[in-house]
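RECORD TYPE: inverse folding
INPUT: C-alpha coordinates
STRUCTURE:
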Protein backbone atom coordinates (compact mmCIF):
# COMPACT_ATOMS: atom_id res chain seq x y z
CA UNK A 1 0.00 0.00 0.00
CA UNK A 2 1.24 3.50 -0.79
CA UNK A 3 0.18 7.13 -0.50
CA UNK A 4 -0.50 8.67 -3.90
CA UNK A 5 -1.07 12.19 -2.57
CA UNK A 6 -2.15 14.05 0.55
CA UNK A 7 -3.64 17.40 1.51
CA UNK A 8 -4.14 19.34 4.72
CA UNK A 9 -6.66 22.10 5.42
CA UNK A 10 -6.51 24.37 8.47
CA UNK A 11 -7.18 28.06 9.21
CA UNK A 12 -3.69 29.12 8.16
CA UNK A 13 -3.84 27.52 4.74
CA UNK A 14 -4.35 24.62 2.39
CA UNK A 15 -1.42 22.27 1.78
CA UNK A 16 -0.80 19.76 -0.99
CA UNK A 17 1.84 17.06 -0.59
CA UNK A 18 3.58 19.02 2.15
CA UNK A 19 3.65 22.40 0.41
CA UNK A 20 1.42 25.43 0.81
CA UNK A 21 -1.21 25.53 -1.94
CA UNK A 22 -3.49 28.35 -0.74
CA UNK A 23 -2.36 30.75 1.97
CA UNK A 24 -5.31 31.84 4.11
CA UNK A 25 -3.41 33.25 7.09
CA UNK A 26 -5.16 36.34 8.40
CA UNK A 27 -8.31 35.79 6.34
CA UNK A 28 -11.57 36.54 8.12
CA UNK A 29 -13.10 33.45 6.55
CA UNK A 30 -10.25 31.06 5.58
CA UNK A 31 -12.48 28.36 4.10
CA UNK A 32 -14.37 30.82 1.91
CA UNK A 33 -11.06 32.27 0.73
CA UNK A 34 -9.69 28.80 -0.10
CA UNK A 35 -12.87 27.87 -1.97
CA UNK A 36 -12.69 31.01 -4.08
CA UNK A 37 -9.08 30.21 -4.96
CA UNK A 38 -10.19 26.81 -6.25
CA UNK A 39 -12.06 28.49 -9.11
CA UNK A 40 -14.85 25.91 -9.05
CA UNK A 41 -18.55 26.62 -9.33
CA UNK A 42 -20.42 24.72 -6.62
CA UNK A 43 -22.81 27.07 -4.76
CA UNK A 44 -23.82 24.33 -2.32
CA UNK A 45 -20.42 24.79 -0.69
CA UNK A 46 -21.71 27.86 1.15
CA UNK A 47 -24.46 25.82 2.84
CA UNK A 48 -22.10 23.12 4.13
CA UNK A 49 -20.85 22.72 7.68
CA UNK A 50 -17.18 23.24 8.53
CA UNK A 51 -16.29 19.54 8.27
CA UNK A 52 -17.76 19.26 4.79
CA UNK A 53 -16.16 22.49 3.60
CA UNK A 54 -12.69 21.37 4.67
CA UNK A 55 -13.12 17.94 3.10
CA UNK A 56 -14.49 19.50 -0.09
CA UNK A 57 -11.47 21.78 -0.49
CA UNK A 58 -8.93 19.10 0.41
CA UNK A 59 -10.48 16.62 -2.01
CA UNK A 60 -10.68 19.05 -4.94
CA UNK A 61 -6.92 19.57 -4.98
CA UNK A 62 -6.29 15.81 -4.77
CA UNK A 63 -8.35 14.95 -7.86
CA UNK A 64 -5.44 15.22 -10.36
CA UNK A 65 -3.64 12.47 -8.43
CA UNK A 66 -6.39 9.87 -8.72
CA UNK A 67 -5.22 6.86 -10.78
CA UNK A 68 -6.28 7.13 -14.43
CA UNK A 69 -7.50 3.52 -14.39
CA UNK A 70 -9.69 4.20 -11.33
CA UNK A 71 -13.42 3.74 -11.82
CA UNK A 72 -14.31 6.55 -9.43
CA UNK A 73 -18.00 5.70 -9.45
CA UNK A 74 -17.52 2.20 -8.07
CA UNK A 75 -13.93 1.39 -7.08
CA UNK A 76 -13.16 4.15 -4.58
CA UNK A 77 -13.85 3.70 -0.86
CA UNK A 78 -14.00 6.60 1.60
CA UNK A 79 -12.69 6.05 5.14
CA UNK A 80 -13.08 9.08 7.42
CA UNK A 81 -12.71 9.66 11.15
CA UNK A 82 -12.46 12.30 13.87
CA UNK A 83 -12.76 12.72 17.62
CA UNK A 84 -15.69 15.08 18.10
CA UNK A 85 -18.17 13.73 15.51
CA UNK A 86 -20.40 16.68 14.52
CA UNK A 87 -19.90 18.58 17.80
CA UNK A 88 -19.33 21.96 16.12
CA UNK A 89 -22.63 21.82 14.24
CA UNK A 90 -24.45 20.15 17.13
CA UNK A 91 -23.73 23.15 19.34
CA UNK A 92 -24.86 25.59 16.66
CA UNK A 93 -28.05 23.57 16.29
CA UNK A 94 -28.75 23.74 20.05
CA UNK A 95 -28.05 27.48 20.02
CA UNK A 96 -30.52 27.98 17.17
CA UNK A 97 -33.20 26.29 19.25
CA UNK A 98 -32.40 28.22 22.43
CA UNK A 99 -32.10 31.63 20.76
CA UNK A 100 -34.82 31.38 18.11
CA UNK A 101 -37.06 28.96 19.98
CA UNK A 102 -37.05 26.73 16.91
CA UNK A 103 -34.37 24.40 15.53
CA UNK A 104 -32.66 25.23 12.26
CA UNK A 105 -33.40 22.66 9.51
CA UNK A 106 -30.28 23.70 7.58
CA UNK A 107 -28.11 22.89 10.62
CA UNK A 108 -29.98 19.69 11.48
CA UNK A 109 -28.84 18.16 8.17
CA UNK A 110 -25.24 18.29 9.38
CA UNK A 111 -25.71 16.84 12.87
CA UNK A 112 -24.21 13.54 11.73
CA UNK A 113 -20.50 13.40 10.87
CA UNK A 114 -20.94 11.02 7.93
CA UNK A 115 -22.74 13.79 6.03
CA UNK A 116 -19.18 14.77 5.07
CA UNK A 117 -18.69 11.64 2.98
CA UNK A 118 -22.20 12.02 1.62
CA UNK A 119 -21.45 15.52 0.34
CA UNK A 120 -18.33 14.30 -1.44
CA UNK A 121 -20.16 11.36 -3.00
CA UNK A 122 -22.90 13.68 -4.29
CA UNK A 123 -20.37 16.15 -5.67
CA UNK A 124 -18.30 13.55 -7.53
CA UNK A 125 -20.96 10.88 -8.18
CA UNK A 126 -19.12 8.26 -6.16
CA UNK A 127 -21.21 5.16 -5.45
CA UNK A 128 -18.69 3.02 -3.59
CA UNK A 129 -18.67 2.22 0.12
CA UNK A 130 -17.91 4.85 2.73
CA UNK A 131 -17.61 4.91 6.50
CA UNK A 132 -16.99 7.39 9.30
CA UNK A 133 -15.39 6.44 12.64
CA UNK A 134 -15.19 8.38 15.89
CA UNK A 135 -11.89 7.83 17.70
CA UNK A 136 -9.88 9.46 20.48
CA UNK A 137 -6.94 10.48 18.28
CA UNK A 138 -5.66 10.13 14.73
CA UNK A 139 -4.85 6.44 14.41
CA UNK A 140 -2.78 5.61 11.30
CA UNK A 141 -2.91 1.87 12.02
CA UNK A 142 -6.71 1.98 11.91
CA UNK A 143 -6.71 3.72 8.52
CA UNK A 144 -4.14 1.27 7.18
CA UNK A 145 -6.12 -1.73 8.40
CA UNK A 146 -9.46 -0.64 6.95
CA UNK A 147 -7.87 0.52 3.70
CA UNK A 148 -6.19 -2.86 3.24
CA UNK A 149 -9.53 -4.58 3.81
CA UNK A 150 -11.13 -2.34 1.17
CA UNK A 151 -8.33 -2.94 -1.32
CA UNK A 152 -8.44 -6.69 -0.73
CA UNK A 153 -12.17 -6.60 -1.56
CA UNK A 154 -11.34 -5.25 -5.01
CA UNK A 155 -11.39 -1.49 -4.57
CA UNK A 156 -8.73 0.34 -6.56
CA UNK A 157 -8.10 3.16 -4.08
CA UNK A 158 -9.17 4.61 -0.73
CA UNK A 159 -9.69 8.26 0.08
CA UNK A 160 -9.06 8.65 3.81
CA UNK A 161 -9.40 11.64 6.11
CA UNK A 162 -9.03 12.81 9.66
CA UNK A 163 -11.40 15.80 9.65
CA UNK A 164 -11.94 17.70 12.88
CA UNK A 165 -13.87 20.82 13.93
CA UNK A 166 -14.25 21.43 17.65
CA UNK A 167 -16.03 24.16 19.55
CA UNK A 168 -12.68 25.44 20.86
CA UNK A 169 -11.79 26.54 17.33
CA UNK A 170 -9.57 23.58 16.46
CA UNK A 171 -10.00 22.76 12.78
CA UNK A 172 -8.05 20.44 10.51
CA UNK A 173 -8.60 18.07 7.63
CA UNK A 174 -5.83 15.64 6.71
CA UNK A 175 -6.72 13.76 3.52
CA UNK A 176 -4.68 11.04 1.87
CA UNK A 177 -5.22 8.81 -1.15
CA UNK A 178 -4.10 5.19 -0.75
CA UNK A 179 -3.71 2.39 -3.28
CA UNK A 180 -2.03 -1.00 -3.51
CA UNK A 181 1.71 -1.28 -4.01
CA UNK A 182 4.05 -4.18 -4.66
CA UNK A 183 6.69 -2.47 -2.52
CA UNK A 184 5.80 -2.99 1.14
CA UNK A 185 9.22 -2.21 2.59
CA UNK A 186 8.13 0.95 4.38
CA UNK A 187 5.52 1.43 7.09
CA UNK A 188 2.44 3.28 5.87
CA UNK A 189 1.50 3.94 9.52
CA UNK A 190 4.83 5.66 10.20
CA UNK A 191 4.55 7.70 7.02
CA UNK A 192 1.04 8.92 7.92
CA UNK A 193 2.07 9.72 11.48
CA UNK A 194 5.07 11.71 10.24
CA UNK A 195 3.00 13.65 7.71
CA UNK A 196 0.33 14.82 10.15
CA UNK A 197 2.97 15.79 12.74
CA UNK A 198 4.71 17.89 10.10
CA UNK A 199 1.48 19.63 9.18
CA UNK A 200 0.75 20.28 12.86
CA UNK A 201 4.32 21.44 13.51
CA UNK A 202 4.65 18.89 16.29
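DESIGNED SEQUENCE:
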Amino acid sequence: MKILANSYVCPKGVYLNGRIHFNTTGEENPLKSAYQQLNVDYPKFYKMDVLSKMAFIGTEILLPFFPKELDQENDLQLIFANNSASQHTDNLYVESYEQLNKPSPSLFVYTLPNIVTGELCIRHKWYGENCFFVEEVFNPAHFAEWSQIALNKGNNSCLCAWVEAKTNGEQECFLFLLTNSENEEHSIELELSTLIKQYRNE
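NOTES: Strands lie at 2-10, 13-16, 19-23, 76-82, 130-134, 157-165, 171-179.
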